[in-house]
Structure formats: C-alpha cells, structure tokens
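hiii so my PI (J.) wants the whole complex modelled not just the main chain, which honestly fair. so below is everything: three entries, each one labled with what it is. i double checked the lines twice but i was tired so who knows lol
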Amino acid sequence: MTDSTNTGGDVRLSGISKTYGSFTAVHPLDLTIPQGSFFALLGASGCGKTTTLRMIAGLEDPTTGTVHLGDKDVTDLPPYKRPVNTVFQSYALFPHLDIFENIAFGLRRRGIKSVKKQVGDMLDLVQLGDKAGHKPHQLSGGQQQRVAVARALINHPQVLLLDEPLGALDLKLRRQMQLELKRIQTEVGITFVHVTHDQEEAMTMADTVAVMNGGRVEQLGAPADLYENPRTTFVANFLGTSNLIEAEVVETGTDVTVTAGGGKLRLPADRCGADTRPGGKLLVGIRPEKITLAHADDAGAIADGRNRVTGRIVDTSFIGVSTQYVVDSPAGTALQVYEQNIERDSRLAPGAEVVLHWNPAHTFGLDAAQSMLAGTVSDAGVETVEDAA
Amino acid sequence: MRLLRKNLVVIAGLLTLAYMILPNVVVMVFSFNDPAGRFNYAWREFSTDAWRDPCGVADLCGSLALSLQIAAWATLGATALGTMIAFALVRYRFRARGAINSLIFLPMAMPEVVMAASLLTLFLNMGVELGFWTVLIAHIMFCLSFVVTAVKARVMSMDPRLEEAARDLYAGPVQTFLRVTLPIAAPGIAAGALLAFALSFDDFIITNFNAGSTVTFPMFVWGSAQRGTPVQINVIGTAMFVIAVLVVVAGQVAAGRRKRTDVS
Amino acid sequence: MTITDIPRAPEAPEAPPAAVRKSPARKRLVPYWLLLPGILWLLVFFALPMVYQASTSVQTGTLEQGFRVTWHFATYWDAFAEYWPQFVRSLVYAGTATALCLLLGYPLAYLIAFKAGRWRNLLLVLVIAPFFTSFLIRTLAWKTILADGGAVVGALDALHVLDVTNWLGWTQGDRVLATPMAVVCGLTYNFLPFMILPLYTSLERIDGRLHEAAKDLYASPATTFRKVTFPLSMPGVVSGTLLTFIPASGDYVNAELLGSTDTKMVGNVIQSQFLRVLDYPTAAALSFILMAIVLIMVTVYIRRAGTEDLV
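here's the output for the full assembly
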C-alpha cells in the first residue's frame, strides 16, 4: 500500500516553541523526523509532547519557529490544508455519523466522490468490514481506536500523528494494538509520530524515541541506545529503573575509577556523560538487571575485575520471572537488584549481608549536578505542583 | 476587512446581545423621566421623583407584594411536588411511566393561553371564586413540569455508586438520602426553584384568565398600559434588574473564590 | 494514628425478625407515593380542565340562562370560519419570530460556547438578565424604541429598509409601531433567551476535539460548521424552536401592546371571547383548535427532526 503521494520527506521542526502567558509548554526545539520512521515522543504529562504534536498538526500555532514537511514550510497552513492527519486521544469520532461516514469524512472534504472502494479497503485493513453501518458508541474501545486510525490513514497523509492513541485501552488490548499499529506502519510506510507516556510502549513500537521533560527534549535515539546510554538522570530513571550512586573521581584513563561509600568502582570513560577530572563528582549508574547478587559468605567466589558493593537486603518481592531485591549499602540506600528466578538462593532474605557485583562495562556515568530523583515516581509529584503554580 | 470576517460570529453575537439588553436600558433611562402625560413613552426631562416615591401610585406596591407572595408559595409547592416526581422517575421502576412522562411534558408543549382558558372553564364550571387561590393553583401547575425537568437532569447525572458507597459506609436509607443524595441533587433543586419563582412572578397570561379581580404586578402593568404608565413601573423594573444582577454576580464571585481556595 | 485507633466496623446486626422487616410490597409502593401529589395536581388542574374545555366547546346557551352540553360541533366550524385570518397570522408571526430567533440566537450561543473564554459566565448572565425585569415592562419599552419619528424608525427609513418592508406589507408608511413588524420584533425579542439557552447547552456539550478532528480531516471552518457543529447542535435547535414557537403561537401580549386591530392573533381572540365577550363555547373551541394545530405541528416536526430525547 505504499503510496505514490508519499514523497514528502522529513518532518523538520526548527526553533519551534510554545508559550501560554508566562508558562512555557515547549522551549525552542529542533527536531528532524526522517521519512517513513516510527517516531515516539515520550514523557510525563505536561512535558510538552502533546503540544509539539499539535503544532505539527496545525492545531496549535507555534510562538516561534517553523514546521517543514519536506521542503515545504507549513507553519502558517491551517490543519485542513496540511497533508497530516491525527489519531486523537479518545479518538474524537463523530457521534452523529456512522463508521463508514467517519472514515470517508476526509475524502469527502477533499471532493472525492467515489469513496466506497477506499473505505471498504480501509475497513478491511483494520478488520472492521462488518461494522460500516454502526455508530461509534456501538463499538468497543479497541474497535473505536481502529476506526480512528482508519479515518486518518485513508487520506494517505505524509505524516500520521498519534496522540496517546492507546491510553484508553486495557493492558492486554494495548499490547495487541501496539503490534497492530506497528504492522500497519510497516505496511503503509507512512511516517508515524506517536505521543505516549508509556515508556514500554514507546520502546516496543518506535525506531526513534525522543524523551521530553519540562518542554525540552532530554535525549533522542534508538530505544536500546537510550536505555543503555542515558545521558541525564531523567532519562535514566524514566526509561526503566536505574541505581544512581554518588561518587568521586579518583583516576581517569580508558576507564574511570571512582570511590563511593568507601569502595572503588570502575566504568568506561566513553560512557561518562560528565567531567571526569580527578576529584570531580559523578553519578554512577547501573541497571538493576545487570547486577548479580551474592551472599556475603560467597564473596570470595566473585571474579576479579567486577565492580562490587556490599550491603544488606531490606526487602524482597517475588515477581514471577524475577525477584526484586532492595539493598542498603554504604554507597547508597535502596539499591534495586533484579535476579532471574533460575536458582534461588534461600539465604537471600531481608537482613542478609550481600555483595552486589557487575561488569564495569555496564556502568554509566552522569553529571552529578542534576537531581538524582528526576524522572522517578516521587519526582512526578513535585512536577505537578510546579505546573499548577 | 479580514478582521471583520474572522470575527463575524462575535460581531453578530454581540449585536444580538445588544438587541436583548436594549429594552432594559430604555426601562432604566425612562425611570428618570418626567413624562408629559399619563404615558411614559417619550422623553421629556430628567427627574428622580419616581425613585424617591416608588410606592406613590395606588395599588402598585400592593400588587408587587402579592406577586412576591404568590411566587414564594408557588415555588415552595412546585419544588416539593416536582422534586418528588423527579426522584420517582429516575430512581424507581413502575408502571405507566410513559403516560406520566407525557403528563409532565404536555404543559410545557402547550400554548399558555390554552392552559389558561381550560383552567378557567374548570373553575367556572365548579363555581370556584377566582382570586389568590386560583392563581396559586395555576402557578403551581405550570411550574411543576419545569421543576421536574431541572431536578431530573441533575439526579440523572448523579453517579448511583455514590449512594452505594454511602450505604457501604454504614449510612441507612434516610442518612444516605440526607447526607449524600440531597446535597448532590441540591443544585438541580435550587435551579428548579429559581425557575419556578421567575416563571410565577412574571406570569401574565394564565394569571390574567384566573385572577378575577385580584391584581398581581404583571396585571398591574397590563392595566396601566391601557390607563397610563406611571414612571414607578420603570423604577420597580430597574430595581429588580439591578438587585438580581448583583445577586448573580456576587454568587459567581463567591463560587469563583471558593474554587480557587479549593485548589490551593 | 496507628491502625488500632481506627474504630472497628460495627458488627453485623442480628437479622431483624420477619415481622419488623420492611415488606417488599411496601417498598414497591414508594415511587407511587412520591408521584401521587404532583401527578394528582396535574391531573386535576391540567388534564381535567381539558375535559371541561372540551365539554364547554360543545355547549350552547346564554350567560344568563347558563350553558348546556348540546353536542353543538358547529361551534368549531363557525369559530374557525370567522377567525381563520387570526390563526394564519398567529402561525406566520410565530414562525417568522422562531426563524429570526434561530438566526439571531445561533451566533450568540456559538460565541458563548466557543469564543467567550473567561467572559462566558458574564455573557450568560447578560442573556438571562432581561428576565429579571417583568416582560410586560420590557415589551412596553419597545413602544419607546419603535416610536414614530424616533431614532430607530428614522434609521430604518434612511437605510430604505422601510421601503422594502412597506412593499412586503410588514410596515405602513413611516410607522413601525402598530404594524406586523413591531409584533414580530416583540415576539422575537421576548422568546430569544428560550432559543439561546438550549442552543448553548447543546453546543457546549460538543467535544472540542471533534472540531479539531474535522479540521485535521480537511474540513474548512465553514464545512466544519455544516458537517459537524450544526448536526451535533440539532437537539438544541429542535428544543429551542419548540420553546419559541409554542408560546409565540398563543401569545397575545405583543399583538396587544405593539400591534393594532389588524395584527390580532388567535390568542387575542381567545382572550377577548373568554374575558370580555364571555362567549365561552366559541372561546373553548378556538383554544382547542389552536392546541390541535400546535400539537400536530410539533409532533410532525419532532418526527422529522428525529430527536426523541427532548424531555
């Protein structure tokens, strides 16, 4: 179904920003979304991701900056003149029109008379061939969602914008629709720009993810790259979970050596997003699933060259595929460790003295000048208070 | 020109609003008139005589008091009866529902003069003396449907789980009604009561048929349109307008302030 | 506060003896008790009068000797034959006023619902505010506004509007007062809020995202209005037109205060037959004919507009 009209090219945002009175929703932003990619804007509510999307759609006028589709400046075009379509949050299906007319709406507005074949094809694509005569309220949430996608896609837009399209669905349906949307995107080859607050959804579906926070893009990259090499504490905490340990640099080479809580840790210099002069401060990060947990009695069996932190288990929770441990140590409190449930060591119970060890190559370093809590759950509360003020 | 086209709706809307407000302005301005003859239709000169002596015309303030009295009782009666009907309609299943719904809808879908005339035939045939009571009966009758509609809308939008939650938290049926149902339905009941008061106070057609020699305020105005309109009518009209607007604005400001303190 | 400070949930009380327990039959009667007083009121003072009026309409007699039911249906025909111009006038005036209300009211309702922002409440108050002054006083104010030789009439004359309305028969010479135009103008004015409020309610209920979705799907502002906004506001249009047309068709206040003998509506006839001429059978018959016409028109209209959930 790759279409001949689909020759527009990239979406380019240059210096685009949006302010409401004294509140800045989006700080000046440069972003290029390559043609045919599945691009996700990820962030907590109020981070400016939806505003950015709406500026691409033309539903919001940017305060500064321009929006280009390919070579064409569309900044001043009203939404109904842009070759861009949106799948709205909670769908915005027209309640007075049936499914067929909802899907045909865009075609009819552009003066296309024979819509029957196209609408039929589109209904088949989203597997709703038998629902053409129904009204939106007669459909389930998942079906409404597919109608919303069909209604936008039938216009062969250069870019399809999706504003939290799966937010109203339950978990199982959401997973199914994620795969479905991914399949449709591959099939039609249109650029998808997807706004979501669900990091798993962004990582499953998108080729490129832009993590937004406070009206700025914190980091942009492929999901795996973002996860493995976060450059800010926000990204480290918002995408999955990170243990962050305050440390002081001792020595710098290809590896950086730091001290934390009396112990020495090493990490690769190229994974340090911060100044690594000896004496400088650093936040050392390690993902919970990269850590191996050993009982203190077995400390001798740990291979040389691995980073070690000693501590005491304060809590364990059984998740099924893994067990999550919370460990207090001199280097930091409430360190998270995920262990696969392959061979469970019955001594690893709350109160047990343990050694956490991991491959230094999995360690990353962040600038110590930022809040360690950015992007965590407790941080979210703080953010909403600021928004209200 | 482009600005004009873009704001066409705004301009048209404001013109309509001006059309609606203009008579009130005229009423207000002419309350300061000193008319030449018996009719207060043409401007002569500025005077505050009428404002200094609002009851200076025979029967004017008496008719006003009577109208307020009838409106108060009609509001009480219609609100009580209407609220009960609204609760029954929303909260219970029973037979003859359709018939009852039609009986409530019909008074609103009937030209007033038809209701007025038919009620008069009833009173004439029964030999009832026309006066205060026949007017009150008529007012409760036509206000009832409006109260039912207002309260019903509110009760229908109420989440039935709130009452279930109250019962779950050890509130008996009476407690549930007094502490949960009634407070939530209160805005609807208040809206219905206000509407009833306004309708009753301002009613002319039905009153005209069923009042006999009793003179309510609208009847007084009607009569004066034939005999001569005293400036005091404009004074009363202006005063009511100003008081009501002040009450509404004060209520809005209070509500706005409450909302703001709730947030912080 | 620790968990032990929280008072314990009360123990489940012993099941009451069967005799004390409310019988389900009594519980089933609750709605009927709630309905009884109000419905009785409507039956006695709304439905029963209709029966009396029906009976009066087929009576003959004189005021002195009293009226008796003689099944004299000819009264209907005689009344209609004599007063059909007033019926036609009522329907034409009420219809014109309703159309004008829709035309004038829609932009204001739209403005309040979508464009007013923080002025919304103020505008709503201004729409309702005229109600606070008795409508008779406000209708009399139109006598001043439309007075002969006044500013409004002068402006209409200067703009040659009067030439057109004279040609249409709406006005006479350089007068507006005591012409059909004055009556329609008064009717429109009196019932505008009844049009605006339902319109506003149904417009305000429209999800703003539907407008955005329409724009996103290549509908220009005009098309968005035609294809999305207006269809979705139909419930408001229907109830607004009914709330305007029904009372306007039976009104006699505007025709009396602003019109002349040539602008009498059927309401004027009913009123004078009942209260001045005291020809009760004719008045009752006229009232019944008016009711029948309005109910039939309303039923047909609601059917065609396809909106049943008005109440």
